[in-house]
Amino acid sequence: MPVKVGDRAPDFSLPDQDRNVRRLSDYRGKKVILAFFPGAFTSVCTKEMCTFRDSLSQFSKLDAEVIGISVNDPFTLKAFAEHNKLGFTLLSDYSREVSRKYGGIHEDFIGLKGYSVAKRSVFIIDKDGVVRYAWISEDPAKEPDYRDIEAALAKIS
């Protein structure tokens, strides 16, 4: 069952692109945008993560941090972050456990039996750890509505 608005955001521990373990609870007291994406270096995911990058100053004004999460390994995520000059944390959900808990998984992705990736999804978590916005796409080619994300952030005190 995916995470819904009003739920307490499930805590997790995942390695970042530098292999440092990060916990969602480390961000208590800040608004957090969790952006799950299927795969680094794919066209739609690159466009999405770069859009988040280009919105960082606006999100900062709204006291929000962006965290990208994919099933890619930390080494791939580091190269992806450096290549695209992403100024935010990327987390490796290589076990797919957190992706399953939040938005779900695409099984047998792109026709490759046994290959699974996170569904493109965005969650906004308030300073107390409660989910205030949830968007999950069944279509991996569809990007989130960035204006909706900004509007949802602005409504959270």
How would you portray this structure in words?
This protein has about 160 residues and is an alpha/beta fold. The protein has a single domain (about 30-155), classed as Glutaredoxin (3-Layer(aba) Sandwich). Helices cover about 30% and strands about 25% of the residues. It has 5 helices and 9 strands. The chain has helices at about 45-55, 55-60, 75-85, 95-100, 145-155, and strands at about 15, 20-25, 30-35, 65-70, 90, 105, 115-120, 120-125, 130-135. The strands form 3 sheets. It has a 5-stranded mixed beta sheet with strand order 5-4-3-8-9. A two-stranded antiparallel ribbon has the order 1-2. Strand 8 (about 120-125) and strand 9 form a beta hairpin. The longest helix is centred in the first third of the chain and has 12 residues, at about 45-55. It is globular and about 45 Å long. The model has no long low-confidence stretch (mean pLDDT about 95).
Q: What is the helical fraction, as a range of percent?
A: 25-40%
Radius of gyration, in Å, reads 14 Å
Q: Specify the CATH architecture.
A: 3-Layer(aba) Sandwich
Q: What characteristic shape results from the CA principal axes?
A: globular
Features:
157 residues; alpha/beta; Glutaredoxin; five-stranded mixed β-sheet
Task: Break the fold down into its secondary structure elements and pairings.
Layout lengths: L12 E3 L5 E3 L7 E6 L6 H12 L1 H6 L2 E7 L3 H10 L5 E4 L4 H6 L2 E2 L10 E2 L2 E5 L5 E6 L9 H10 L2
Parallel strand pairs: 3-4, 4-5
Antiparallel strand pairs: 1-2, 3-8, 6-7, 8-9
